[in-house]
Batch of 3 targets.
Target 1
Amino acid sequence: MKPQQQRRLTQVEVDELVAQYATGLNVMQVAAAFAVNRETALLHLQRRGVPSRAKVRILNDGTLAHAVRRYAAGEGMTTLCADLGINPTTLRRELTKAGVPLRAPGRPTRQRASAKE
């Protein structure tokens, strides 16, 4: 197995990294643009004194309430995640925080499927 090659950024590249982050790109996007690890990009930003952005909640209260209603009505996580454009882990976490009992993953059992009819 070949060892991973380290990519060292020049001062000009770090300046550009900081500028791109300032335009609104997130750390993952900036890291990908400069072919560096996310942690490396974060370290460059910290060294330059760039304040980190607060994590933005993906689902607001209204969208979460809508997702809870759909999930309670029997809609699957996969469909909900695709419609909302979010990761299943995010939806699972938000539903759990909201006190919604989660169904077992997979296809509905015969009992659940017949209850819908």
Target 2
Amino acid sequence: MKAFAPFLLFVTLFLCSSCSKNKPDDSTEIAEEQNEEKFDTTNLEYDTEFAVSAADAGILEVQVGTLALTKATSSIVKQFAQTMIDDHTKANEELKDLSEGKNITLPTILSEKHKKKVSDLEEKSGSDFDKEYSDLMVKDHKDVVDMFKKAADKCNDAELKAWTAGKISALEHHLSMAENVKKQVK
């Protein structure tokens, strides 16, 4: 029996590790799957997908902003980063509160896609960091503005639709600020 125990332990560990490989470990994927189970047969499927994407984008803004506070060399980049942290932290909390009231699951950490962006940025330093960060902020804010405009039209939940529409002008202002920062650090 003692000789059989290591074999049994090996088989158990192998089976457990195989099971965990089938489960997503990306917080965004997990949130999407949970929402799909809850909202797949409702008219809120698009709304939940948008909420997950918006939360993921907001988490990215805060994380790279925090990184910029320590790695940026330009004071304008640091000022912009602090604005992004403040504004997106507030928006993230608002979205979280709104989503909790509607039983929408949001990611709590970055998606793998956004982790790669952070990782790439972490490798930069000095003026290279400032340029890369400002490039990222322009690109991501263009994407987010487009995403929010589309959602303001397509969301079915009235509260989420109103919240989304109310954020567009701030996001457009962030884009304008990011473009200004990019010009100054080039």
Target 3
Amino acid sequence: MKPIVARALEALAAMMLSLFAGSLLTLLLLPLWRWIEATTGIESIGHSGPAGWCYLATSGVLLTCWALVRVRRIRRDEGH
């Protein structure tokens, strides 16, 4: 498989995994979201759970961590 295709598939898998793991982690972080709402006044918890931005933030952090690790690994493999 061509390296660009393999990297694209890996990135797609990482995005899908970060959405699933991010959703689970967002629910586990309910005390954090309540604290953020109480401290800053930013709407974080609604009647049906965490706000949408909480899910996006958590998934974004996970995806960013994956990307940083991946870039570091690519640079190491290329000898930079």
